[in-house]
Amino acid sequence: MTNPAPDLTDLLKDAPSNWGKWGPEDEVGSLNYLGPEQVIAAAGLIRTGKVFPIQRLIGDPKGDPVWPSRKPAVRTQLLDESTWDSDDAPAFPGGLHYADDKIEAFLQGSTQYDALGHVWYGGKLWNGYDARTTVGGMDKASVRPIADRGVVGRAVLLDMARYRDKDALGSAETYTHEDLIACAAQQGVELRKRDIIVIRTNYLALFFELGDAFYDDFCEPGLQYSPELVQWFADMEIPNLVTDTIANEVTTDPDTGVALTLHNALMRNLGIAFTEIVDLEQLAADCADDGVYEFFYAAAPLKVHRGSGAPVNPIVIK
Ligand code: UVW
């Protein structure tokens, strides 16, 4: 018989925490590491003027990869030229016609920022907020404070797929902070304190290849928890982890059997913002071409009152 997965409370009992570091009312955590100094330094990385919006397409006819319990966004057309021909169409002076539509979407479907309070264990969210503050909507550590401040800084792409000489990482494939350091060294880019870390796996290519079968035995590749990895993220004062996978980390830890350990160790405990499901293909091709893996990064999720996450189209400029 296999051992049951340990409880996160036990697994992370000695793990580093940033609770209280920015005061009892803080709701943006390690994003506090990004101030004017980091913004100005990041602006100095703009050299060619090439712009890369890295959001995935909402309503992509090829499909939208989402976490298994979620559904892709549905866009509905409400007004178009055919509507304006009907008798009950609204009428405006001067012959005005226009198109209207709406989307019904999970706030964490497609490319998104997680709120720091999005995941928890032991009844406490980021900064020690009571988990009951999530009932009916997030009263603490929602996505709103992240949206209100925005995220701007130096980012570094770590192309783990190219580093491992693959088109894409495979299901359940893991990597560590030591792999990130080795990947940066191979790419010739320096990893600095307070960098926004952007990791490419190209794993979601499999979703577009397999369709619904992608969700059979779902286990994404990604960072794997270890106390050393969490300490490295804490020591490096990483403000934001951005990846092209749905959940930024290996779905279920192959050693402990625990799901989404790093959501808790990095986001809940250290206050590191998570950005998921970005599309890095054009950016990565450009980086492979010019050998420049550092760049200016700016993002602000949509301002959603009490939201546990929100869609975003981060902009990278080289
Ligand atoms: C969960 O935490 C379940 O999902 P996400 O990938 O949006 O963080």
Give a verbal description of the structure.
The model has no long low-confidence stretch (mean pLDDT 96). The protein contains ten helices and 13 strands. The longest helix has 11 residues, at 177-187. The termini are far apart. The strands form three sheets. It has a nine-stranded mixed β-sheet with strand order 1-13-11-5-7-9-10-4-12, sandwiched between helices. Strands 2-3 form a two-stranded antiparallel sheet. Strands 6-8 form a two-stranded parallel ribbon. The protein is globular, with a radius of gyration of 21 Å. The chain has two domains: 13-69 and 106-317, Putative cyclase (Glucose Oxidase, domain 1, 3-Layer(bba) Sandwich); 74-103, no CATH class. With 318 residues, the chain is an alpha/beta fold. It binds acetylphosphate.
Offer a quick outline of the entry.
22% of the residues lie in helices and 17% in strands. It is of the alpha/beta class. The protein has two domains: 269 residues, Putative cyclase (Glucose Oxidase, domain 1); 30 residues, no CATH class.
The end-to-end span amounts to: 53 Å
Write down the domain tally.
2
Strand content: 15-25%
Any ligands, ions or cofactors bound here, and which?
acetylphosphate
CATH superfamily of the largest domain: Putative cyclase
CATH topology of the largest domain: Glucose Oxidase, domain 1
Which CATH architecture of the largest domain would you pick? 3-Layer(bba) Sandwich
Helix count, DSSP H or I runs of 4 or more residues: 10
Mean pLDDT metric: 96
Radius of gyration, rounded?
21 Å
CATH top level assignment of the largest domain: Alpha Beta
* Run of helices and strands: HHEEHEEHEHEHEHEHEHEHEEE
Spans of at least 5 consecutive residues with low confidence = none
GO molecular function, one term: arylformamidase activity
Protein name: Cyclase family protein
